Amino acid sequence: MKFKNMKFKPVNVAVLGPEGTFSEIASKKFLADECINGNFVYCNEVDEIFELVENQNVSFGVVPLENSIEGSINLTIDCLREYYKIVEIYKDIILDVRLCLLAKKDLEYVSVICSHPHAIAQCRKFLKKLNRNNDNRFKISTVKSTALACKIAKDDETVAAAAAEEASEIYRLNLLFKGINDYKSQTRFIVIKRKFTDANKISGKKISLIFELENKPGALYEILREFSEKDINLTKIESRPSKRRLGEYFFFLEFEGNLGNENTGEVIKNIKGKVKFIEILGNY
């Protein structure tokens, strides 16, 4: 994605590939919002994007964090924990997800419908009805991305893909059905970059952090009470296995505020005295 009036060198941005994924669409929105020239580096997995950012092979990475229908992307949260010393969240992007059914030829040639598992889940009712109206002849299959499904459909007329409408032009596929989501859907992506200093950005409206608790009664309550007493609104909290032993978890938490605010600073200071581990992932 290039802007004609930009004179500086384009940055490399790692996204989930191949070309035509919602990750790429979100990345284009990010580049346009920031007025940055960018070249895309396509990856197969979320953790591959984190590795590229860590090794400074790219300036930014764009990964999905949560979907309004299917919830959090666990691998992204796990990677934020794994790479917290090196990678931080720069900003987030909310993208409306409108799925379409695409194929090389008409529906009568199709016997397989494939897409990313989250995309299949988001149009489950549509696919069930479509199958029922066509003698249950469609096999539903999952692949690593919506764009990969399009790539398969491009080479096989018996395969249809649930994907973004933009992908129909890239892969020269027919648009069989528009808006096949069962519900209106949004996916939130985060832009990650490498940390270059120990100082966190103190401008922003949202803070993301991770922490681990002592194994004792009321430990989580003590943390949440700190936010309540300062009238700070939590927007997300998620627990994930520590991967060290059964029953041990870390928490991913987000709240409204910025690190330059006195109340925010006091809450974080108080929390530090009540947890085994805490790390701020970004203020954006």
Provide tags for this entry.
284 residues; five-stranded mixed sheet; alpha/beta; 3 domains; Alpha-Beta Plaits; disordered N terminus; 35% strand; D-Maltodextrin-Binding Protein, domain 2
What series of H and E elements makes up the topology? Answer: EHEHEEHEEEHHEHEHEEEHEEHE
Q: What is the strand tally?
A: 15
Briefly note the structural class of the backbone. Answer: alpha/beta
Mean pLDDT: 93
Helix content: 25-40%
Query: Which CATH architecture of the largest domain is right?
Result: 3-Layer(aba) Sandwich
User: What would the principal axes of the Cα set say about the shape?
Assistant: globular
Percent strand equals 25-35%
Q: Which blocks of ≥5 consecutive residues have pLDDT under 50? A: 1-7
Enzyme class: lyase
Domain Prephenate dehydratase: 12-194
Pathway: Amino-acid biosynthesis; L-phenylalanine biosynthesis; phenylpyruvate from prephenate: step 1/1
Keywords: Amino-acid biosynthesis, Aromatic amino acid biosynthesis, Lyase, Phenylalanine biosynthesis
Describe this entry's structure for a reader:
- With 284 residues, the chain is an alpha/beta fold.
- The protein has three domains: 96 residues, D-Maltodextrin-Binding Protein, domain 2 (3-Layer(aba) Sandwich), CATH 3.40.190; 82 residues, D-Maltodextrin-Binding Protein, domain 2; 78 residues, Alpha-Beta Plaits (2-Layer Sandwich), CATH 3.30.70.260.
- Helix content is 29%, strand content 35%.
- The protein contains nine helices and 15 strands.
- Strands 1, 2, 3, 4, 5 and 11 form a six-stranded mixed sheet that branches. Strands 8-7-9-6-10 form a five-stranded mixed sheet.
- The longest helix has 13 residues.
- The chain is globular, with a radius of gyration of 21 Å.
- The N terminus is likely disordered.
- One of its GO terms (biological process) is L-phenylalanine biosynthetic process.
